[in-house]
Amino acid sequence: MVDLKKELLKNPFVLAPMAGITDTAFRSFMREMGCGVVISELVSAHGIEHKSLRTIELTKFSEIQRPVGIQIFGEDAGVLSKAAQFIEAQGADFVDINLGCPVPKVVKKGAGSALLREPCTLNKILKQVKDSIKIPLTIKIRTGWDDKSVNAHDVVKAAADAGVSWVAIHGRTRAQGYSGRANWEYIKEVKSKASIPIIGNGDITLAKTAVDKLHESNCDGVMIGRGCLKNPWIFKQALELYQTGEEKKFDKDICHALGRLKVWVAERGDERYSTLQTKKFVSWFSSGYPGSQAFRSKLFSFKSAQEIYSYSMEYFSQFNISEQIDTSHENFLMGGHG
Ligand SMILES: Cc1cc2nc3c(=O)[nH]c(=O)nc-3n(C[C@H](O)[C@H](O)[C@H](O)COP(=O)(O)O)c2cc1C
Question: Is 101 a catalytic residue?
């Protein structure tokens, strides 16, 4: 059985779940690119109950990803428990419950961040799910529903009492969506009173920031989402800085990275999927490089993953890939399920 605390000590930089992005191919790629624990995008517990093929597909993973958690969402303790048992039977290392999704379709049904509003009810749900499985249960939350009900302290207490192994906190309220900045001061405060590991999350776009936030907040880990889309080397850089304390010159091997992404994306054997995913990723990777706008415009005209790789290699070989301009001030993917 995986010991998540030990995993965080080995590598405290966790890949954030992102719907439509952190599928099995991207998780495998990111593990190779140096991240610690990985978590799937959110998967509907009701979808698992109804044996929806599309949903079941989302629960699959490769061995290289271990330790890998599968994230589920739902509002009913019984349905969530059965989904958790299904995930356990699939061989995943742990189950994560999404309690941060702000999307109206999810919240209206009482799932995602809606469950944060009643820590007592949440405690009962978490207990029931935890009791139904042997593998660890983790949760991912927001700081609260809105600025009048910032209650991560209470949620963490409810989770600890239910036997939850860690709480990942995206430092914004549900009402904030993706606006403003993640509140790391509050994350630090919650961590200072928590009896279980806390993972801080929000707005980490540089390896140095990841290490600084880890130290300043005293969290057990930090979770990185959008930051690794523009800089897939961020995990390796952060781990190296964390382990050595030195910010060394880092050589980014784009040929190797694109080659590995290509392999993982091709595993599904679906050219349409490969083309789409590859376009998406290389377009994000090109942020902060000379002529990236023109590169992207042409990128979308290609019809096969192979063409995209050749075109991308040609583009990236024109300059020093290690010199990427920080574009974190630009709005980027300002919506998601957590
Ligand atoms: C496109 C997108 C999809 C997301 N999907 C999920 C999800 O399925 N489950 C979840 O818990 N959080 C999801 N999130 C939230 C991220 O895990 C993370 O909390 C958020 O992006 C803030 O971290 P970051 O600034 O490092 O990206 C998503 C975010 C984005 C941008």
Answer: yes
Structural domain includes residue 334: no
Mean pLDDT (the chain, rounded): 96
Task: Show the CA angle centred on residue 30, arms to residues 321 and 303, nearest 5°.
Answer: 70
335 belongs to a structural domain:
no
User: What is the number of domains present in the chain?
Assistant: 2
* Owning domain of residue 87: 9-244
Q: Which atom of ligand 1 is nearest to 334's Cα?
A: 31
- Looking at the fold, whether 209 and 281 belong to one and the same domain comes out as no
In this prediction, residue 186 has a pLDDT band, given cuts at 50, 70 and 90, of very high
Instruction: Specify if 33 maps to a domain.
Output: yes
Answering whether pTM is above 0.85, one says: yes
Pocket test for ligand 1, best of 170, 206, 230 (most atoms within 8 A of CB): 170
Q: Which amino acid is at 112?
A: G
User: What is the pLDDT at residue 316?
Assistant: 94
| Ligand 1 atom closest to 41 (CA) | 8
With a cut of 90, say whether residue 335 has pLDDT above it: no
